[in-house]
Specification:
This protein is α+β, with helices and mostly antiparallel strands and 204 residues long. It has two domains: 50 residues; 135 residues, Nuclear Transport Factor 2, Chain: A. The strands form two sheets. It has a five-stranded antiparallel sheet. Strands 1-2 form a two-stranded antiparallel ribbon. The N and C termini lie far apart (110 Å). Helices cover 42% and strands 31% of the residues.
Length: 204
């Protein structure tokens, strides 16, 4: 049985319509799936939950990073100074390894300077413990660069003798990509400088 040219032409037209319909449906399905994924992601950010210490489920509210930048900056500076100046022979390497993720080359250069001067060797040799007791930072939110000035009080224990010092440091914070767990705040200490150091009287 032979098909006429007209019948073959009709079959081709039907075939093209079927293919075109399938392609359109595939694109529509992909677009709808993408929209649903975005919608679900957005909803999940607004409706996240966590479990507290008592086992209760608590809703979490997603906030824009810039909205709480001041809180994150102060927290970053506090933890940075605790790690860099809170030194103990047992945790010395662990602290220094962490803190180098939180600062740029200015922090690394200060660390190398202290190391070359034998600061860390004396800490180990005499079993000194340097404990941070207070960190007070002042910041200026000026956009991407955040100047800061920090007053750190710390104790140096030599056996039964404890001396208290006050250190003033300055620098700038810049925003970088968050890196869990190394740099969760997404902030980097730059232009770090030890401005002054003084020994406090016992009554202070």
């Amino acid at each position: 049985m032979k098909f006429s040219y007209q019948n073959i032409h009709s079959l081709f037209k039907i075939n093209r319509l079927i293919v075109l319909s399938v392609v359109i449906m595939a694109f529509a399905s992909s677009g709808f799936s993408g929209w649903m994924a975005y919608h679900i992601h957005k909803e999940s950010l607004q409706n996240a939950f966590a479990i507290d210490n008592n086992g209760n489920v608590q809703p979490l509210l997603w906030e824009d990073k810039t909205y709480r930048l001041d809180v994150e900056a102060l927290s970053h500076l506090e933890r940075f100074h605790e790690l860099f100046y809170g030194l103990d022979a047992a945790i010395l390497e662990e602290h220094l390894e962490k803190v180098l993720w939180w600062g740029d080359s200015s922090v690394d250069e200060l660390y190398k300077q202290k190391k070359s001067e034998g600061f860390y060797n004396r800490l180990l040799q005499y079993s000194l413990i340097q404990k941070v007791i207070e960190v007070d930072s002042k910041i200026e939110l000026q956009g991407d660069v955040i100047p800061f000035s920090t007053r750190t009080r710390f104790e140096v224990r030599r056996g039964e003798i404890t001396d208290t010092y006050e250190l003033i440091t300055t620098g700038k914070l810049v925003q970088v990509e968050r890196n869990f767990p190394h740099n969760p705040h997404g902030l980097l200490v730059t232009e770090f400088f030890e401005k002054s150091l003084k020994k406090l009287n016992d009554e202070n």
